[in-house]
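Sample pair:
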Amino acid sequence: MHEEIGSYLENMKTSPARLTDEALLAEVKRLAQCERETTATLIAHLVEVEARELFHAEGCSSMFKYCSEVLHFSEHATYLRLRAARAARRHPRILDELASGALNLSSIEILEPHLTSENYGELLGASRHKSKREVEKLVRSRFPQEDVPTVVRKLPEKVMALEAAAADASVGPTAAPVQPACTSEGKPTLIAAPPVRRPSVIAPLATERYKVQFTASEALHDKLRRAQDLLRHRIPDGDVAQVFELAVTLLVEKLEKQKFAATDRPRAAREGLNSPRAGGRTIPAEVKRAVWKRDGSQCTFIGKSGRRCTETGFLEFHHVDAFGHGGKAMIENIALRCRSHNQYESRIEFGMHQEDRGQIEFRLYEEERARTKAAGVNRTPGG
C-alpha cells in the first residue's frame, strides 16, 4: 500500500499512514461505529423497499436478486441482511441493538428463527455482546435438539475400510452403512449408523470443470448402479459424471417439452395463429415454442432503469395485453415472465393480488370451456 497509493487514499482528508497509533485506533473505532449505524440504517431501508416491492420496478424478481445484482452485495452478505431485515420488521428493537454493536448480523441470523413476541426481549438481551459461538450455545440451551441415537458398534478393519472405499470410489457418498450393535439387553442387532449430512456443493474447479457433491439416498444409489450397468456398452468404466450428464440431458429435454412444447420435429399448426383458437385461454404449442426461443428462456420484464430481469426459474407465459381484457394467445402478445413479475404486472393491470386475479381467470376459463364444449371441442387449461 505504501508503494502504490490508490486514488481513494489520495482523496482522503487524512491518510491512515499519517496518524499516530492512538489516533489510528480511535479512528478505526469511530469508523466501526459508523459502519454499524450505516448497516442498521440500510436494514431499515431494505425493510421498506421489500414492503413496497420496489425491487420489481428495478427489474428484479426478488429482494435477493435486487441486493446481489443491483446493490452488488455478495450472496452471503445479501442473505444476512435480508434475514436481519425480516427480523427487524417484526421486532424493530433489533435495529437499535445492531446500531449500538450489541448484536451483529451473524447473531441475528441465529436468533431470528426462534424470536417470538413473548421471548424476543429476553433473547436479545441475553445475546448482547456475545460471540457467534456463545449465541449458538444460548439458543441450544433454550431450544434443545433431539439427542443422536446411541450406537455401540464395531469399527471395520483398516483393510476393510480401504476395500469399501475403493469399491465405492466411482459412486461417491451412499446411504449410511448398517453396522452390528448391542442393545441395552446385550442382544446383537443391526442398526444404521447416523448419516453425516453434508450440504450439496456445486463449485468450479477450473474452466468448464465443476465439482458437484451431494448426499444420495439408497434408492438413488441403486438407480445409479443400474444405469451404470445398462450403459456399459457406451460408458464401459461407468464414469458417474458421464452417466449424470446423460441423465440430466434427457431430463431437461423432457421438461422443456412439457413446459415449452420444445421439439425437433414440430407438427404443422392445424389453424392459423390469427384464428379464433388464438383468442382462447389455452396457449398453442407453436406459440409456446416461438416465445420460448425468442425470449431465450428468461424473464423479459424490463425495469424503469432499462435493466432486464435475469430470472430463468419459475417462468410463466404472460399475456402482454391481459386475457381478461381481450388479449389473444398470439406470439406478439405472449412473453416470458418469472412468477414474481407476472404477479407484479397483474396487480398493476387489475389493481388486485394474484389470488383475486386467479378467481377471475378461472371464471373466464370456465365460461370459455362451456362455450367450446357446446361447440364439441375438448380443451384443457394451459398458459
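The chain has 15 helices and six strands.
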